[in-house]
C-alpha cells in the first residue's frame, strides 16, 4: 500500500458514513490540495456504491470551506440507481463544518458511437526531460508526493502570454492510477494562470479551487505499469472579475485520453 492509498483510505462507520483522516502531506499553501480532497470523496463514493461494474464517469466537487488536518467524515447518498447509471451525492464534514459537496455519476460500459477529435500534444518523452525538484516542498508538501517533468509552457512563471502548462507526472511511489488518482492528477500541477502572472508580493497570492469537475473518459490500458508517466495538460483562457477557469487533460504516453477536467478558481 502506497502513501496515497493510506491517505485516501475510508472506513465505514456504524451510521453508514465514512471516516477518514486528512493528511498534511497533501498540503498546498492554504490547506489540502483540491485534487486530494476529490480523491478522498471519490473513494467514499466508490465504497458506498459497491459495484465495480459501474465505473466513475463524472465527479463534481464544490469546495465550501478549507479543510484542516485530522479526522473527517463523508456522508454519501445514492440519489438514484437505474439499469446502467447511478447518481450519488456526498458531503465532507469536519467538526460539524461542511467542507465539500460532491455529485458523481457511475455507469456501466455501453456500446455506442465513438470518436476522438482531441489530439495529444506532441512533446518530448519523459526520459528526455529533466525532473523538477520540489524547491518549495516546505510550504507546499504535496510537491514531494509526485515526480514531474515539465514539457509545456515556460519554466519561469509569469513570463508567457499564454496560460498553458503541463508535462509528465507520476506518483513518487510507483502505483497504477485508478479513478481517485486521476482526480488527484487533475489538480496536481501548478496552475496555468501562473504562466502569465507569477506568485509573489507583486503577483498571485493563491488560486484556491471553487469547484472541480472530472470526466473519466477511458480505462487504463491493460499494459499500464506502476512506474508509467502520464501527460497532464492545463490551460486557462479567461480571467475576469477575480475568477479564472482551467481545463485539463490526462493522457497515456501512447495517446489514450484518460480524463478531462474543468475547474473554476479564485484569484487572490
Q: What is the total domain count? A: 1
The CATH architecture can be named as: Beta Barrel
What is the CATH topology assignment?
Porin
Termini gap: 37 Å
What is the CATH C-level name? Mainly Beta
The Rg value, from CA coordinates, equals: 18 Å
Spatial shape: globular
Report the uncertain regions: none
Commentary on this structure:
It is built from three helices and 15 strands. It is mostly beta strands. α2 runs antiparallel to α3.
In short:
The protein has helices at residues 3-7, 34-49, 179-185, and strands spanning 11-12, 18-22, 27-28, 31-32, 55-63, 70-81, 85-94, 97-107, 146-152, 163-171, 209-216, 230-236, 239-240, 243-251, 257-266. It has 268 residues and is mainly β.
